[in-house]
UniProtKB/TrEMBL annotation:
<dbReference type="InterPro" id="IPR006258">
    <property type="entry name" value="Lipoamide_DH"/>
</dbReference>
<feature type="binding site">
    <location>
        <begin position="153"/>
        <end position="155"/>
    </location>
    <ligand>
        <name>FAD</name>
    </ligand>
</feature>
<dbReference type="GO" id="GO:0006103">
    <property type="term" value="P:2-oxoglutarate metabolic process"/>
</dbReference>
<dbReference type="InterPro" id="IPR004099">
    <property type="entry name" value="Pyr_nucl-diS_OxRdtase_dimer"/>
</dbReference>
<feature type="binding site">
    <location>
        <position position="58"/>
    </location>
    <ligand>
        <name>FAD</name>
    </ligand>
</feature>
<dbReference type="InterPro" id="IPR001100">
    <property type="entry name" value="Pyr_nuc-diS_OxRdtase"/>
</dbReference>
<feature type="active site" description="Proton acceptor">
    <location>
        <position position="454"/>
    </location>
</feature>
<keyword id="KW-0547">Nucleotide-binding</keyword>
<feature type="binding site">
    <location>
        <begin position="190"/>
        <end position="197"/>
    </location>
    <ligand>
        <name>NAD(+)</name>
    </ligand>
</feature>
<dbReference type="InterPro" id="IPR023753">
    <property type="entry name" value="FAD/NAD-binding_dom"/>
</dbReference>
<dbReference type="InterPro" id="IPR050151">
    <property type="entry name" value="Class-I_Pyr_Nuc-Dis_Oxidored"/>
</dbReference>
<feature type="binding site">
    <location>
        <position position="122"/>
    </location>
    <ligand>
        <name>FAD</name>
    </ligand>
</feature>
<dbReference type="InterPro" id="IPR016156">
    <property type="entry name" value="FAD/NAD-linked_Rdtase_dimer_sf"/>
</dbReference>
<feature type="binding site">
    <location>
        <position position="213"/>
    </location>
    <ligand>
        <name>NAD(+)</name>
    </ligand>
</feature>
<feature type="binding site">
    <location>
        <position position="322"/>
    </location>
    <ligand>
        <name>FAD</name>
    </ligand>
</feature>
<feature type="domain" description="FAD/NAD(P)-binding">
    <location>
        <begin position="5"/>
        <end position="337"/>
    </location>
</feature>
<feature type="domain" description="Pyridine nucleotide-disulphide oxidoreductase dimerisation">
    <location>
        <begin position="356"/>
        <end position="465"/>
    </location>
</feature>
């Protein structure tokens, strides 16, 4: 006889495990199914984010930044380092340990919140009488039932046609995090978040990195002024980015990969790389869910079709995160997971897509929330802009990192903050203030009038808000 639950969550990534915990907090008998395995075959909940995404990439970004500082930045501070060497095995081992700590943390949270965890692949078996039967294919196959089902199966990396991932020469995000020797020449196709972050990691530890991007502009989704500043700073570090390229044949040899491509001017090139990272987007992970078996509707791109409340086409079936429309961001998935659990409980869960922050963890970091200047122009919205450079910020000078700026965009009539864009040190942390401000529909004047600690990087946010009214005090 199958085990019965009020809520069954398929997938234990950020959207799934958070949805399960919140459902359990609200009094529902909850199960969560996830198939991810660690290197010993045990459960590794956390999804792409924890296992081969957000968490391990930040661990390597931090380690590689320390290495670069030791080799190039410490001398300015009067710290002399002799005989610097890289222990890549230790660096990767630390990354793996950080991942394990997060895996174990999620398992602990399941236990604490009385969420029943099933290690295996979940799929629909049948739907009848208002109850869904879910098959769990794992070490021991079993079936469970749920009155509500939350699909949180995430996404997979998109491969280039004719260049399947082998994770040895042609790498997805997973392979990019586990290169066991620093490549002399590293190719990256795609100048998005993953491409720039992974390119930064391996450049810092000694690889010559070439990034090939099909789009004619750098970081097209980012505010143009901020993107141009970021491109200039990354190029200065040695990250070679070619825009407007057209990728041709990709041929994997025994020890290297040859990429044929045409540049923006139409000139043909043939580049040979020791490793090639392909980061051209992600596709929803719905294969094996048996959606067709129960009549679950997928859209033309394979996403689970949902309404604004994350309700799928079947009664009491929901979907969150990368497997549905909207930005593929871990924190967006978490907010949807909470909202769905609360909607199941009859509450009014809410996710404001207009105040979801974005971050690229390069150095300098790039973070933004709300509209870009080009979006406001396209929409015909009258706005005022204010910028402030970290070059004029005392804390940034003390840190030794004065690159970048903060930019505010506010409504020309009401002064409501419409967008905030940052490139510079700790942008990922600084953006939170602006997210809060926008959620409460604050004006730039509100931020300009709030006392910020001195000396702090956050003063650059205050100064940019002051600059909207052309009254910055320190620049």
């Amino acid at each position: 006889m199958s085990k019965e639950f009020d809520v069954v969550v398929i997938g234990a990534g950020p959207g799934g495990y958070i949805a399960a915990i919140r459902a359990a907090q609200l009094g529902f008998k909850t199960a969560c199914i996830d198939e991810w395995k660690n290197d010993k075959g045990g459960p590794a909940p956390g999804g792409t984010c924890t296992n081969v995404g957000c968490i391990p990439s930040k661990a390597l970004l931090q380690s590689s930044e320390h290495y670069e500082h030791a080799g190039h930045g410490f001398a300015e501070h009067g710290i002399e380092v002799k005989g610097l060497s890289l222990n890549l095995k230790q660096m990767l081992g630390r990354k793996d340990n950080v991942v394990k700590q997060n895996n174990d943390g999620i398992l602990y949270l399941f236990k604490k919140n009385k969420v029943t965890f099933f290690h295996g692949r979940g799929s629909f078996e049948k739907a009848e009488g208002g109850v869904y039967t879910i098959k769990v294919a794992g070490a021991a196959e079993e079936t469970i039932t749920g009155k509500h089902v939350v699909i949180a199966t995430g996404s997979n990396p998109r491969a280039l046609p004719g260049a399947a991932f082998d994770e040895k020469l042609i790498l997805s995000n997973a392979g990019a995090l586990a290169i066991d020797a620093v490549p002399k020449k590293l190719g990256v196709i795609g100048a998005g978040v993953i491409g720039l972050e992974m390119g930064s990691v391996w450049r810092r530890v000694g690889a010559a990195v070439t990034v090939l991007e099909a789009m004619p502009t750098f970081l097209g989704a980012v505010d143009e002024q901020i993107a141009k500043e970021a491109q200039k700073l990354l190029a200065k570090q040695g990250l070679e980015v070619s825009l407007g390229v057209k990728i041709g044949a990709i041929t994997a040899g025994k020890k290297d990969v040859t990429v044929e491509y045409a540049d923006a001017a139409g000139k043909e090139h043939k580049a040979v790389f020791d490793k090639l990272i392909v980061s051209i987007g992600r596709v929803p992970n719905t294969t094996g869910l048996n959606a067709e078996g129960v009549g679950l509707k997928l859209d033309e791109r394979g996403f689970v079709a949902v309404d604004d409340d994350c309700k799928a086409s079947l009664p009491n079936v929901w979907a969150v995160g990368d497997v549905v429309r909207g930005p593929m961001l871990a924190h967006k998935a978490e907010e949807e997971g909470v909202a769905v659990a609360e909607r199941i409980a009859g509450q009014h869960g809410h996710v404001n897509f207009n105040t979801i922050p974005w971050v690229i963890y390069t150095s300098p970091e790039i973070a933004w929330v709300g509209k870009t200047e080009q979006q406001l122009k396209a929409e015909g919205v009258a706005y005022k802009a204010g910028t402030f450079p970290f070059l004029a910020n005392g804390r940034a000078r003390a840190l030794g990192d004065t690159s970048g700026m903060v930019k505010f965009l506010a409504d020309a009539k009401t002064d409501e903050i419409l967008g905030v864009h940052i490139v510079g040190p700790m942008a990922s942390e600084l953006i939170a203030e602006s997210v809060v401000a926008m959620e409460f529909r604050a004006s730039s004047e509100d931020i300009a009038r709030i006392c910020h600690a001195h000396p702090s990087l956050s003063e650059a946010t205050k100064e940019a808000a002051l600059a909207v009214d052309k009254r910055a005090l320190n620049f």
